[in-house]
Each structure stands twice: as structure tokens, then as C-alpha cells.
Design brief:
With 491 residues, the chain is mainly α. It folds into two domains: 152 residues, no CATH class; 329 residues, Up-down Bundle (Na+/H+ antiporter like fold). The chain contains 23 helices and no strands. Helix 12 packs antiparallel against helix 14 and helix 13 runs antiparallel to helix 14. The longest helix has 33 residues. The radius of gyration is 23 Å and the shape is globular.
Length: 491
């Protein structure tokens, strides 16, 4: 079969399967029997809903790969399409998922004794509240809420595993080796977008609270180095000076970004900007990471000695899973985001700890921690990205103020990262360094998701920030290729 026919066949097959999955995700309230009457096992609707979300993630990833774009972009845009089609065609499950954390706040109020209709109109806007209330009071309301909770939990697990793998790929030794250029680029790449983002939010939407401005600014400081790393590999530039600076800066950027997230989240939870409180949060974050880096290896060696009696795969899997989850829980316990604990777990844990099990170097390489955790990440992370896309409400862009805000944030996001390239010394292609730090990708989405869960990011701002993430992720690779293609030139 010719290649063109193969591609056409693949797309038609995906389209047909997608239509079937879309029908399964929605229900006709007037004629459909309750889901529990169609399925003997109460978990069956959950299986169907989660599998449907993952199916659409696969379609998004497939389309993105065909177009030469990052997978995260395909999954995110697929979620945007799915969420907004559901809004117009009234697909029950997606309508509920579209409201994000507000649904669980509604459920919490209802369980505390508040009438369901009152809880809906308190937590949601008028028209949306009526739609969601109609779904939840229908025959399938309980099952739909159960599916929504499962999808949310799976997506949160996905984020934890993703940050764990980021930490796993980050070498503390390499962090110590990065030079002045990487450090200066990283610091500038966090501070400049933060200042520009805060200023844009203050000027363009002065009615926003300072807490919201702070969170918007913190989100703009994020960087997704995975997208840049792929472009550098494609161009065979991964060993260039610019690549070393970008990758080194991205490591420091991750640490600074997570520290900023901890500070801003702490300010929001405490209810205001207090110098003493900010100092406490910074000290707490530093002590947590330092304590984990110091005590973590000792606890790991003890646990591994106990688990060495198991099969090597079991020992590595159990140790990795328990370690990352315990640190994620401890981070939350001390007031930090769970992803900070997950990242710290990845920084510490590596395959060399299992030498105490008496395994050979060949066994250590063939059964790595990364290869064992990766399947979990591959399944769960796409659910997170599709869910983020589903929560983007395109109708919010009908408001001119939201469009202006989105444009201002995009400009601040681009300029903030371009400026950081000029923190590198002369003789370096500074433009390529700035462009390499520009894509926000999955890191920006994690930040804005946390902001929405804290209640400081509303639907309109959420959509505007996700648009910024999409655009910076789209434009960075081609611009970086052009900048790196200017052989012998420096910016």
C-alpha cells in the first residue's frame, strides 16, 4: 500500500474510532438507560471514561507527531477541541470535567450539608451551574462524578511521576559544574518574566488581586527544556556551547521555579504578603530539599537492604514508588507543592543505590528505574494534558479584556525569556539561548493547574495562560532552528 494511502487510512480509522469514543463519553439524557443498569460492575463506567480520555490523548499525540510538533501540544489541543465541542453538544462527562477543581469544591459543600443546587450556584457561574446541576441530578450523576474524580486523581499521579523523572534526569553533580553563563541565564530567565508578567497583570487587569498577579508572574517564569532538547538533538547541536548553557540553565530554572511556586503558594494560602512569612517559606523549602538530599540516601540504603530479598524489578519498583510518594506527601505536609517532593526524590534516587543488592553493572543498566517508571508516566501524563485542554473555555475569549490580557502575557512571556539570553557572555549566540528558554510546555501547565486548584486563577485567566503556553511552545522550535542555523553569527 502506498504511503499516502496508509496515512489516509490511519486518519480515517482514528476519526471513526474517535466518533465512537465521543458517543461513549456523552449520554442522551432523554433516552439512555442509567449507566449502572447497563453495567453490572460499578467500576465499568470509570474504565470507560478514563479509557475514552486516554484514547483522545493518543489521537492528539499521533497528530502532533505527524506534524512534527511536541506530543504535549497535540494532547493539549485535543483537550481544547474536546472540551469545547462538549460544551456545544452537551456531553455530560466532559461538561463536568470542564469545570475542574470547582466540581470537587461543589461536592465538598454538598457533603457538608449544603443543598446541591445552592452549592452549584456558589461554586459555578449561572449558566454553567444550571448545566452541571442537570447532569449531577440525572440518573448517571453519581457515576459521572466518580469518573471525574478518577480522571483528576490519575492526572495528579501523572504530574508527580513526570516531575520525578525530570529529577531523575537531573544530576546534582552537573548542577555544581554549570558555569556562570548558565546561572545568570537561569536567574534572569525567572526574574525577568516574573517582573514583566506582574506588570502586565497590574496594568491590563487592575481589578485582579495581588495574589493572582503573583501567581501569573510565577507561571511565566517556567521553562520546558524537553522541547528545546529535542530540537538541539535534531540539529546535532546538543554538544554546542549554546546547548550546554541552555540545558544547564534549565536545571537551575527548574529549582528556582519550584522555589518561587512554593513562595507564591505559601503567600496565597496564608492570605497576604508578609516578609516574615515569605522568609519562613523560603527557609522551609530550602530545609526540606537540603534535609531530603542529606537524609534521603541513608533512608534509601536502609530500605533497599530490606527489599533486596525481592526480585530486582520488584525492589526497584517498590523503592521508587514508595520513595517518591512519601516525599510528595511530606512536601505537602510542610506546606509545599507535592511536585517539589517528587522532583527531590528524582534528584536523589538512582540505579547505583542497588549495588547493595549485589547486582552486576549489566543488570543495573538493563533494568533501570527510569525504564520501570516510564510506562506509568506514559499512561498518566497524557490524561493530565488532555484534562488541562478540556478546561480551556474558548468562549472566554469573546471578552476583549481577556484577549488583551492574553496578548500582554504572551508578550511578557516572550520578552522575558529573550532577555535572559543576553545574560550570557559575548561570543555566544544569545538569541538562540533566549529562544531555547522560551517554551513553557508541561511545566507552565503544572503551575497554572496548581493556581486553579488554589482558586486564584479563574476560567478566563486559565484560558489566557494556556494560550500563552501553546503559542510559546509552537513558535520556539522553528525560531530556534533559524537562530542556530546562523553559523558563525552571535547575537
Amino acid at each position: 500500500m502506498p504511503d499516502k494511502l496508509k496515512i489516509l487510512f490511519q486518519y480515517r480509522l482514528l476519526a471513526l474510532s474517535g466518533a465512537t469514543a465521543l458517543m461513549l463519553l456523552g449520554t442522551d439524557r432523554a433516552s439512555a438507560a442509567p449507566l449502572d443498569a447497563l453495567h453490572g460492575d460499578p467500576i465499568a463506567p470509570v474504565i470507560l471514561g478514563v479509557t475514552g480520555i486516554l484514547f483522545f490523548a493518543i489521537i492528539g499525540r499521533f497528530a502532533a507527531r505527524r506534524l512534527g510538533q511536541p506530543s504535549v501540544l497535540g494532547e493539549l489541543i485535543m483537550g481544547v477541541v474536546l472540551g469545547n465541542l462538549a460544551y456545544y453538544f452537551s456531553l455530560d462527562l466532559i461538561l463536568v470535567l470542564r469545570e475542574g477543581p470547582a466540581i470537587f469544591e461543589l461536592e465538598k459543600m454538598a457533603l457538608a450539608g449544603t443543598r446541591l443546587d445552592l452549592a452549584a450556584f456558589v461554586t459555578l457561574s449561572g449558566d454553567t451551574a444550571a448545566q452541571v446541576l442537570w447532569v449531577l441530578q440525572g440518573p448517571d450523576g453519581g457515576q459521572i462524578l466518580q469518573v471525574a474524580q478518577t480522571v483528576d486523581v490519575f492526572s495528579r499521579y501523572g504530574v508527580i511521576f513526570m516531575l520525578f523523572l525530570v529529577g531523575l534526569d537531573t544530576s546534582v553533580v552537573e548542577m555544581r559544574k554549570v558555569g556562570r553563563d548558565s546561572a545568570m541565564v537561569a536567574v534572569t530567565g525567572v526574574i525577568a518574566p516574573f517582573i514583566l508578567g506582574f506588570a502586565a497583570a497590574r496594568v491590563l487587569m487592575p481589578q485582579l488581586s495581588p495574589n493572582t498577579d503573583l501567581f501569573i508572574a510565577a507561571t511565566l517564569g517556567a521553562t520546558s527544556v524537553g522541547i528545546t532538547a529535542r530540537v538541539l538533538r535534531d540539529l546535532h547541536k546538543e554538544h554546542s556551547r549554546e546547548a550546554h548553557i541552555i540545558l544547564g540553565a534549565a536545571v537551575i530554572d527548574d529549582m528556582l521555579g519550584l522555589l518561587m511556586l512554593a513562595i507564591v503558594s505559601g503567600i496565597i494560602v496564608s492570605g497576604g504578603v508578609d516578609v516574615i512569612n515569605v522568609v519562613n517559606i523560603v527557609v522551609l523549602a530550602v530545609l526540606f530539599v537540603a534535609g531530603v538530599l542529606f537524609l534521603g540516601p541513608y533512608l534509601l540504603r536502609l530500605a533497599i537492604r530490606l527489599l533486596c530479598h525481592l526480585d530486582l524489578v520488584e525492589a526497584k519498583m517498590f523503592t521508587s514508588y514508595l520513595f517518591v510518594m512519601v516525599l510528595a506527601w511530606l512536601a505537602n505536609l510542610v506546606g509545599l507543592a507535592t511536585i517539589i517532593g517528587a522532583f527531590a526524590a528524582g534528584l536523589i534516587l538512582n540505579d547505583s543505590f542497588f549495588k547493595y543488592c549485589g547486582i552486576s553493572k549489566e543488570e543495573e543498566r538493563s533494568i533501570s528505574i527510569k525504564s520501570l517508571i516510564m510506562p506509568l508516566e506514559v499512561i498518566l501524563v497524557p490524561i493530565f494534558f488532555v484534562l488541562m485542554g478540556i478546561q480551556v473555555k474558548l468562549e472566554t475569549f469573546m471578552d476583549t479584556r481577556v484577549l488583551v490580557m492574553a496578548g500582554g502575557l504572551l508578550l511578557a512571556a516572550i520578552l522575558g525569556k529573550l532577555v535572559c539570553g543576553y545574560a550570557a557572555r559575548k561570543g555566544i549566540n544569545r538569541l538562540s539561548v533566549g529562544l531555547g528558554m522560551m517554551p513553557r510546555g508541561e511545566v507552565g501547565l503544572i503551575f497554572v493547574a496548581i493556581g486553579k486548584s488554589l482558586g486564584v486563577i479563574n476560567d478566563a485567566l486559565f484560558s489566557a495562560i494556556v494560550l500563552m503556553v501553546i503559542v510559546t511552545t509552537l513558535i520556539s522550535p522553528p525560531l530556534l532552528k533559524l537562530a542556530l542555523g546562523r553559523t558563525g553569527e552571535t547575537a
